[in-house]
Amino acid sequence: MATIKVLDIGFGTGVLTKKLYDDGYEIYGIDFSRKMLEIAKDKMPSAKLHQYDFSKGLPKELENIQFDYIISTYAMHHLEDKDKIKFINKLKKQLFNDGEIIIGDIAFETRALLEQCKIKTGEWDDEEIYIVFDELKKIFPKEDISFTTISHCAGIIQLKNYPNLYL
Ligand SMILES: C[S@@+](CC[C@H](N)C(=O)[O-])C[C@H]1O[C@@H](n2cnc3c(N)ncnc32)[C@H](O)[C@@H]1O
Fold first, then answer.
1. Contact 90, 101 (CB under 8 A)
2. How far does residue 123's CA lie from ligand 1's centre (Å)?
3. What are the angstrom distances between the C-alpha of 53 and each of 30, 146, 150?
4. Tens digit of pLDDT at every position of the chain (167 positions)
5. Does the beta carbon of 54 sit less than 6 angstroms from any atom of ligand 1?
6. Of 72, 83, 123, 125, which has the most beta carbons under 10 Å away?
7. What are the structural domains of the chain?
8. Where is each Methyltransferase domain found (predicted)?
9. CA of 57 to the centre of ligand 1 (A)
């Protein structure tokens, strides 16, 4: 059986990807921090990890590779919403037909819930731009996109291309 290819965007120290690596997944990743790359490389010597700024897209070495899963945890909030959308559109092209993008981050189903959390928390980092799912969903009407709440301020966004059959 072919190995499952996973690309991790902003892998950090590889907390998440190391588990997949140990389970035999073929791991690719990008992170712009050299320190993070060194730590992750130590844990996952065969992973193809690249030091690269994802606000510029993907490095050349990854441009022609198709992935089963593209994952990202607690990293996408560094992009402005318009840049997230541009990036997600780019990533979609790198998925196999039945591939999936999975983003776990501080995220809210609606803007009202985000505003509620902002008030409750009392402190907010305005430099971080959190996903509001029902706004994102409108941008991707042709995709199978879902949101799972995991806490009062975090969620998982899963996005699949509809199979060609339904287009
Ligand atoms: C909060 S950490 C999360 C790390 C990991 N995904 C996890 O869940 O443990 C965010 C990571 O994204 C990386 N990062 C942030 N902005 C980036 C960018 N524009 N390009 C590449 N990496 C970036 C940081 O270096 C950091 O390793």
1. no
2. 21
3. 8, 27, 28
4. 789 999 999 999 999 999 999 999 999 999 999 999 999 999 999 999 999 999 999 999 999 999 999 999 999 999 999 999 999 999 999 999 999 999 999 999 999 999 999 999 888 899 999 999 999 999 998 889 999 999 999 999 999 976 554 44
5. yes
6. 72
7. 5-166 (3.40.50.150)
8. 6-99
9. 14
